[in-house]
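Researcher: Batch entry, complex prediction.
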Amino acid sequence: MRRKFAAGNWKMNGLAADLAELEKMVAAKPAPSVDTAICGPATLVHRMAALGWPVGGEDCHAVASGAHTGDISAEMLADAGASYVITGHSERRADHGETDADVNAKTRAAWRAGLTAILCIGETEAEYRAGDTLDVLHRQMAGSMPEGCTGENTVLAYEPVWAIGTGLTPTRDEIGAVHNALRDALIERFGTETGLAIRILYGGSVKAANAAEIFGVADVDGALVGGASLKADDFLPIVAALEAAD
Ligand SMILES: O=C(CO)COP(=O)(O)O
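Model: Structure tokens for the complex:
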């Protein structure tokens, strides 16, 4: 039985003053029946973790330490109190040219440090319009997901690039068809037990207003939430909707 999971991604947002939002979330003590986490900027991870809410990084380097100015290793995130790290977010793939092989290496780095990887895949608008969504996702999964994925060390996040920060989302049927195909692909690659254990999150313009509808789709195990995770008043209703979902 997969535990539902509501994860936030603060992206390049968050100053010390914004920790007050996380404090509000902690104070609300929401939904013990679902997993929650906020992935925050590296500058805040330590302080976020100290508040007692599960925390993740947004990226990590593939190696543990060394001459890589400005980079953060998975071990550093774990040392700062993180339990998760996002790998392969489309903004890193686009802004930093990260390839599936890079994402694969970063995901293995996350495991090495004892972190759970929230591994992101998703098609661009052009790929969506061309009807190539599943081909793209299968290719990204094949390249980005290392051997050894389990329900504990990896969470898969389907984030259509064209739905991120745009207010657009695929239809329920489209999300359902994609998540169903991803589940089949996980089972084929990792076997039935593991394929059924790996959680698949949807991400892209999830808000309180559409959360219940999205969480009602089969094989949606939760969400990776960007903009609506920055404020407690936006994120907590999403967590509540996940808890209420069948
Ligand atoms: O990229 C996302 C989460 O990783 C989604 O961002 P938005 O929820 O702001 O669309």
